[in-house]
Amino acid sequence: MGYTQRVIDDLKERYADQPEFIQAADEVLTSIAPAVDANPAYEQAALLERLVEPERIIMFRVPWIDDAGKVQVNRGYRIEFNSALGPYKGGLRLHPSVNLSILKFLGFEQIFKNSLTTLPIGGGKGGSDFNPKGRSDREVMAFCQSFMTELCRHIGPDTDVPAGDIGTGAREIGYLFGQYKRIRNEFTGVLTGKGLTWGGSLARTEATGFGLVYFVEELLSERGESFEGKRVNISGSGNVAIYAAEKAAALGATVQTMSDSTGWILDPAGIDLAAIHEIKEVRRGRLSEYAETHPSCEYHEGRGVWSVACDIALPCATQNELQIDDARALVAAGCAVVGEGANMPTTREATDYLIDQGVAFCPGKASNAGGVAVSALEMSQNSERLSWTFEEVDAKLKGIMVGIYHAAADAAAEFGHPGNLVVGANIAGFKKVADAMMAQGIV
Ligand code: NDP
User: Fold this and answer.
1) Which numeric CATH code is attached to 207-362?
2) Residue 392: which residues within 8 A CB-CB, separation 6 or more?
């Protein structure tokens, strides 16, 4: 049995109670096996055993008082997974489903995504089983202040720089930052996703959607093609979807579909993105409102964007939303490229099918890394105490996404899987971390 498989088997035995973490580790380790086998020094240095074990896990009690005067107690976590390339970096998820397995899965994936950006950031993730939905602003503030009272001893601009994630938006980042500053008496870039007047970066809002389109644009240009004249189907109508749609349309594509959790729209003439912005970002309404004012549009309840023929599919809503039947329909209708904007929107079975059928498949780990890349650029601006213009940040973002595409494509070709960007992204992300860990000794 090979080294990689032994490590996977050992993990499965040791962490049988952490299914999400096992799934992620199994997927990554299996696909990097050719790169690991090519370098026996990794095994001598127990590199994989160290890679799968977080450098530090912090778990703590988060007591706070609700509006009824009752004491509530949540669990807080920070997984400081790997700092070979820089300070730990990754979001804080506030959701009732949060547990150690999910945070270890996300933290592990983050190591490779962050490595791909080429920026000096390690991998981490954290959060709590606190649910901000339905809580008053005062309750959310009380939770955030209690959470940060403990977390502040473990993080810092050169140590660990958390960001937002599900349930942690601008409001929560503000409360967390305020409490850090109050306790430490330091105004530093200890969190990213900050407001523009107090250390946030321009183009962070657009970064993930724009970055996704830059990644796909580079893939197309390698084939002598572009977005010009292409039919693009997008799912979701949130942050990632809206800015992916905006950039694809700016590059000459026709964005035909978008969706939300109740239904989806098809506008073959090209979706009116100013109307989407008004409905979803300003009024926080439903997509069904779009159909009322756009007679060329069809509105359907439920899911269905992948049933419409297109050239490029960009799933930007949620996990496991593009399933095997959707993949079959896309291939049958001639779709040539699938670019993941969301995290894990394509099921394993659908991913394998798309790759087998010759569809250019862009894994989220690579193609949605624009968000964390601009978060790292926010850290750079905070260190310099300067704010870059939108154009400067956008140009850097584009350069990073083009670089990620080539790193993944080159690694896929080097290790015998030309065109397979899933394998390529895992290997390219891994190699940089592995080389740094080897250089830094047994730590
Ligand atoms: P938002 O919450 O802004 O938007 C999510 C969108 O998806 C909403 O339009 C939502 O509809 C829709 N949606 C949710 N569930 C479903 C469903 N079951 N079927 C159809 N539509 C659904 O999130 P983001 O755009 O920020 O994130 C989207 C994905 O991208 C997530 O997987 C996230 O982890 C990932 N991601 C985000 C990054 C970022 O920078 N924002 C960075 C990297 C990854 P509704 O309006 O009804 O809620």
Assistant:
1) 3.40.50.720
2) none
